[in-house]
Specification:
12 helices, alpha/beta, GGDEF domain-containing protein, binds ligand C2E, binds calcium ion
Length: 280
């Protein structure tokens, strides 16, 4: 039994350094990925339940690594946030999305805004984000109304005063913000109403079981009512089937996003969907 201590400790150390090494190699690969064109943007449409029309889209980063294959954002975004690579990824996304949006407009396709995800860290040191937005809008000559940002509720509430100030600065530039993953981050109503945002996105975890879990249904009902009271649009994420859709409709939800209407699509497929003016 005496020998077990050091052996366990050794194993623990080994495991720790393996994990650290993995993170480091992911970080190094990610750094190269940005320069080597391994990242791309996919787009998931958002549909208005009143008109059935596509009224927006969310851009989601994709990483196709030559040695790892497709890597999920759930795996590399946290690494990107820790290492500071997130700024470069966000700037890549802003650039690609603004350029693509402008291109679709030139092709005469229906013009709708594109929403890019931003991390809390970028809001903390917002000067870089603000100047990147300004630069990209000017380079692409895209009207700022077609660019939106999504900030998670937990990031928004961590330092709400700062986040409110940044959202205000973006608003002055004509860039609207939504609060993402809403319902998971303990907002207080009094803070929420100070955010000059246009949209709340209800987190997928509440939508998933909405038809079977009365607690989830009650939460979504409350979020929709609150959004209405604050005159905000409300989007439900992760809508996967007709039952989800019907239930959300009865609760008065404005917009939906999810596999039921469409998975996130590469630019070409998204352009095709826009050209067909596909409806719900
Ligand atoms: P999110 O911002 O909440 O994005 C929605 C996620 O749900 C996406 O996963 C999307 O593919 C997925 N999804 C959409 N509809 C459905 C559905 O009906 N069912 C299910 N099961 N899933 C659905 P994805 O693309 O893997 O992204 C995961 C997360 O990674 C995002 O969550 C976001 O937090 C982060 N992320 C993705 N792209 C970016 C980015 O460009 N920048 C930053 N900072 N974060 C990003
Ligand atoms: Ca999002
Ligand atoms: Ca979300
Ligand atoms: Ca989420």
């Amino acid at each position: 039994a005496k020998a077990q201590g050091p052996a366990t400790l050794q194993m623990f150390n080994k495991e720790m350094s393996t994990r650290a090494a993995k993170t480091l190699s992911l970080q190094n690969r990610l750094r190269r990925a940005i320069d080597h064109g391994e990242l791309s943007a996919h787009y998931q449409p958002q549909v208005d339940l009143g008109s059935g029309e596509i009224i927006g889209m969310e851009a989601l980063v994709r990483w196709n690594s030559p040695d790892l294959g497709m890597v999920s954002p759930a795996d590399f975004i946290p690494v990107a946030e820790e290492s500071g690579l997130i700024d470069g990824i966000c700037e890549f996304m802003l650039d690609v999305c603004a350029t693509q949006n402008k291109e679709w407009q030139k092709q005469g396709l229906m013009t709708i805004p594109v929403a890019v995800n931003v991390s809390g860290r970028q809001f903390q040191y917002a000067r870089r984000l603000l100047s990147a937005c300004e630069r990209i809008l000017s380079v692409t000559d895209l009207d700022s109304h077609w660019l939106e940002l999504e900030l998670t509720e937990s990031s928004a509430m961590r330092d709400a005063d700062n986040a409110i100030a940044v959202v205000n600065q973006l608003k002055e530039m004509g860039i609207g913000c939504s609060i993402d993953d809403f319902g998971t981050g303990y907002s207080s109503l009094s803070v929420l109403k100070r955010f000059p945002i246009q949209k709340l996105k209800i987190d997928r975890s509440f939508v998933m079981d909405i038809t079977t879990d009365p607690n989830d249904a009650a939460i979504v009902d409350a979020i929709v009512a609150m959004a209405k009271a604050l005159k905000l649009k409300v989007v439900a994420e992760g809508v996967e089937n007709q039952e989800h859709l019907d239930f959300l409709r009865t609760l008065g939800c404005d917009q939906i996003q999810g596999y039921f209407f469409s998975r996130p699509l590469p630019a070409e497929a998204m352009g095709q969907m826009l050209s067909e003016r596909r409806r719900m």
